[in-house]
Specification:
The chain is of the alpha+beta class. The chain folds into two domains: about 60 residues, no CATH class; about 110 residues, Metal Transport, Frataxin, Chain A (2-Layer Sandwich). The chain has five helices and nine strands, in the order ααββααβββββββα. The strands form two sheets. The chain has a seven-stranded antiparallel sheet with strand order 3-4-5-6-7-8-9. It has a two-stranded antiparallel ribbon with strand order 1-2. The longest helix has 24 residues. It is globular and about 40 Å long. It comes from Holotrichia oblita (Chafer beetle). This is Frataxin.
Length: about 190
């Protein structure tokens, strides 16, 4: 187990470590341990799985080009957040207005919470301001919950776990709901890669 600890600990993936400890602590025999520059540990079971998980960890760490999020002051955050949500509200109203199959859709914006209910079978999107965290939270019926930070260098909202912007995700998901062309780049503080 010390070999695994040395190999996995630099990647700070404790879930994988716990999985390996649980899986292999009961193993009777480790068939091969090769301690050279690149530590390779061969177990009697699931060697391929171990290598895949470690290569994913390494590739996720090295290919990250997500910009560093710098906190903005509260006044700027409130202003930018208000502009973003009002812009999205106007654009959603424009989209729904031009769609015949979305006549029962309801768009409501109040107190920093934008609710876009497309009705069955599309579901409800909720986009709201989280002032203590200085984030915008999105609840999507397609992709689930996400928390967006404001990138002040480029003036856009970014989900730092996958590197996609708020408007980019909305562009992808809403284009599957409406029949007309969707362009969230029109909205304030947007960035579509």
């Amino acid at each position: 187990m010390q070999a695994i600890t040395r190999h996995i600990h630099p990647y700070r993936n404790f879930k994988l470590f716990k999985l390996l400890r649980r899986t292999y602590s009961s193993s009777i025999k480790i068939t091969k341990i090769n301690c050279d520059k690149n530590l390779k540990v061969w177990f009697p079971i699931a060697t391929k799985l171990l290598n895949q998980r470690i290569s994913v960890l390494v590739s996720n760490r090295t290919t990250s080009n997500i910009p560093e999020i710098q906190l903005v002051d509260s006044i700027k955050f409130e202003k930018v957040c208000e502009e973003t949500l009002e812009s999205l509200t106007e654009y959603f109203e424009e989209l729904v207005e031009n769609e015949t199959h979305l006549k029962s859709a309801d768009i409501n914006y109040s107190d920093g919470v934008l609710t876009v209910n497309f009705g069955d079978p599309y579901g409800t999107y909720v986009i709201n301001r989280q002032s203590p965290n200085k984030q915008i939270w999105l609840s999507s019926p397609v992709s689930g919950p996400k928390r967006y930070d404001f990138v002040s260098d480029g003036e856009y909202w970014l989900y730092k776990h996958d590197g996609k912007t708020l408007h980019q995700l909305l562009q992808t998901e809403i284009s599957n709901i409406v029949t007309n062309k969707v362009d969230f780049a029109k909205c304030l503080h947007s960035r579509i890669n």
